[in-house]
């Protein structure tokens, strides 16, 4: 009986599914495309939200998406950089301690950005690289 009801309403179901998926895809595309190219002011704002999530897990839902954007960006940056350095066989420009992840990177980057407000006009990906290179330099 339920299968018959689904079959009868399939066009409506597919229309709703396409609208929801399209909206999600456009939001995801903007988020994935945007943070690395945003300036340091935007990075600092979303990473302050992430820091609040890391420290207390108590954050208003309207800020949770920004927090998760920063956390995902940091994790991707750390793992991508590490993999790229390993794959290319080239030396690392920053050497974080074992077990380093977003819970360490977010507060470090927020602190770096707050200490260097003159750099907030630069793009986020350059600032994360600079912050981690400054805070975790590799031994010569």
Strand content: under 5%
Total beta strands: 0
The share of residues in helices is over 70%
Cα-atom Rg, whole angstroms?
A: 20 Å
N-to-C span: 71 Å
Order of helices and strands: HHHHHH
Structural class assignment: mainly alpha
- In total, how many domains does the architecture comprise? 2
What is the overall silhouette?
Answer: globular
Low-confidence stretches: 1-32
**Overall average residue pLDDT:** 74
Describe how the helices and strands are arranged.
Layout: H1 2-8, H2 10-34, H3 40-56, H4 61-88, H5 102-115, H6 124-135
Helix pairs in contact: 3-4, 3-5, 4-5, 5-6
Structural overview:
With about 140 residues, the chain is mainly alpha-helical. It folds into two domains: about 1-35; about 40-135, no CATH class. Helices cover about 75% and strands about 0% of the residues. The protein is built from six helices and no strands. Helix 3 (about 40-55) packs across helix 4, helix 4 (about 60-90) packs across helix 5 and helix 5 (about 100-115) packs across helix 6. The longest helix is centred in the middle third of the chain and has 28 residues, at about 60-90. Mean pLDDT is about 75; it is low at about 1-30.
Compact description:
With 140 residues, the chain is mainly α. The protein has helices spanning 2-8, 10-34, 40-56, 61-88, 102-115, 124-135. The longest helix has 28 residues, at 61-88.
Structural features:
single chain, 140 residues, mainly alpha, 2 domains, 74% helix, 0% strand, disordered N terminus
